[in-house]
Amino acid sequence: QVQLVESGGGLVQAGGSLRLSCAASGLTFNNYAMAWFRQAPGKEREFVSRISSGGGTIDYADSVKGRFTISRDNAKNTVSLQMNHLKLEDTAVYYCAAGLSLLVVNRFPAYWGQGTQVTVSS
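Structure (tokenized):
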């Protein structure tokens, strides 16, 4: 059974930082591209960042470019999202997702985590 479990969410002031982690089990982690998505209240889920199975290719949504950093540790089956200079509009539930290729992970992920809440306050 595949499980993706996010952690690290919480309440932070604008301008602060948080680091999200996603622990994967039940799959051959280094075969999967990984991605982070988020969903703000009343809005559709949106793509945040993705990383290829080997970590060599990374993409970000324009809204987080230069502030967020995605990384993965294939030895530990984890993917992380370092979020700096957080803004009020970054408030959302953040989800990690796994897909069999970089081309599909941000459109049709095979697996989703349950999400972790990030709240940025003024």
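The two ends are 40 Å apart (CA to CA). The longest helix spans residues 102-105.
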